[in-house]
């Protein structure tokens, strides 16, 4: 069995971490590899560690280097975005839509011991190096967009092409023209499937414009978010449209019939009122006729009434005794 090589002695002073070191937990298995890490999240490869986001120190354990890599990658994955890469000529940036996996470990994670990068060629070399530096603290740099974004110029170009909106106002938010264009794209894609008010389309467009530029196409191709789905109604198909047309026609016809019935009821009330008025007028006229007939009987000459003349003729004459006595005297 070959004798393990002695620990490598660095000839430079190692800067101590400002984070309080995490004590190594007692292990029940001496065969476990244990590595203590200072973790920094960076935007660029050559950016200073102090300019990145400093995470809490962490101790990773595993039976071999492959397991350690998976553990380290799982711990750092929430701080990774998507892999930035070139498309064609250098300077034209694109973003892979797949989330990083452990296969992309070397692209997103770099490990250093002091100034030296830890890039073992095989399992045995990694095991030996980690064993030799059990008491030392490694430094992990998590690259948010991968190792192709090297400098601040690369980051600025990448942000301009893939992250920030192409048209923005002075505050950096998407301009009105960007909102209008996004609404147009959404209607072109989903206008035949969903219908809603204009304000709801703008709300959907605003939620997409808040995301990074490279994610816009993916979200435009997806239906409305679940939180907004109740604001949109499905566009009816041909049968539904015909059914709705018939329903609207029947509703109009029903309203017309109801209106005619109300008019008839009004006319009926008017007719009833006219009948009552006519009956009252008839009663009044009959009473007046009786009065007129009574007056007419009083003023009609007897000669004009043959019945009375005949009656008078049948009445016997009575002698005028009173006037006879006066004549004798």
**Count of individual helical segments:** 10
Let me know the largest β-sheet.
Answer: 6 strands, mixed
Q: Quickly give the CATH architecture of the largest domain.
A: Roll
Span between N and C termini?
A: 201 Å
CATH top level label of the largest domain: Alpha Beta
Unreliably modeled segments: 1-20
Account of the 3D structure:
With 329 residues, the chain is an alpha+beta fold. It folds into three domains: 33-153, Ubiquitin-like (UB roll) (Roll), CATH 3.10.20; 164-234; 238-299. It is built from ten helices and ten strands. It has helices at residues 65-76, 105-108, 123-132, 152-163, 176-190, 198-209, 216-221, 238-299, 306-313, 321-328; strands at residues 33-42, 53-54, 58-62, 84-86, 93-95, 109-113, 116-117, 137-143, 194-195, 233-234. Strands 1, 2, 3, 6, 7 and 8 form a six-stranded mixed sheet that branches. The chain has a two-stranded antiparallel sheet with strand order 4-5. Strands 9-10 form a two-stranded antiparallel sheet. Strand 4 (84-86) and strand 5 form a beta hairpin. Mean pLDDT is 82; it is low at 1-20.
Key attributes of the depicted protein:
329 residues; 10 helices; two-stranded antiparallel ribbon; disordered N terminus
Task: Write a compact overview of the structure shown.
The protein is of the alpha+beta class and 329 residues long. The protein has 10 helices and 10 strands.
């Amino acid at each position: 069995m070959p004798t393990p090589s002695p620990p490598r002695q660095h000839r430079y002073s190692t800067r101590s971490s400002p984070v309080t070191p995490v004590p190594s937990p007692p292990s029940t298995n001496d065969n476990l590899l244990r590595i203590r890490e200072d973790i920094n999240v960076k935007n660029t490869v050559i950016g200073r560690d102090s300019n990145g986001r400093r995470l809490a120190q962490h101790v990773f354990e595993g039976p071999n280097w492959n397991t350690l890599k998976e553990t380290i990658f799982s711990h750092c994955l929430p701080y990774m975005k998507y892999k930035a890469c070139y498309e064609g000529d250098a300077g034209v940036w694109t973003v892979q839509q797949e989330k990083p996996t452990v296969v992309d470990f070397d692209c997103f994670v770099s490990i250093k011991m002091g100034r030296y990068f830890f890039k073992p060629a095989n399992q045995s070399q990694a095991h030996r190096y980690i064993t030799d530096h059990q008491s030392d603290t490694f430094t992990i740099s998590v690259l948010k967009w991968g190792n192709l974004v090297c400098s601040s110029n690369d980051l600025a170009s990448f942000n301009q092409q893939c992250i920030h909106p192409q048209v923005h106002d002075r505050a950096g938010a998407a301009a009105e023209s960007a909102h209008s264009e996004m609404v147009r794209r959404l209607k072109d894609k989903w206008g035949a499937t969903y219908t809603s008010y204009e304000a709801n389309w703008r709300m959907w467009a605003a939620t997409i414009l808040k995301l990074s530029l490279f994610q816009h196409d993916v979200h435009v191709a997806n239906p409305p978010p679940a939180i907004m789905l109740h604001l949109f109604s499905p566009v009816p198909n041909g049968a539904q449209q015909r059914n709705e047309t018939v329903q609207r026609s029947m509703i109009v016809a029903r309203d017309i019939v109801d209106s005619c019935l109300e008019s008839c009821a009004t006319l009926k009330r008017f007719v009833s009122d006219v009948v009552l008025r006519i009956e009252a007028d008839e009663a009044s006229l009959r009473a007046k006729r009786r009065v007129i007939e009574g007056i007419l009987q009083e003023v009609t000459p007897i000669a004009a009434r043959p019945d009375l003349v005949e009656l008078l003729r049948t009445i016997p004459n009575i002698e005028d005794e009173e006037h006879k006595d006066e004549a004798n005297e």
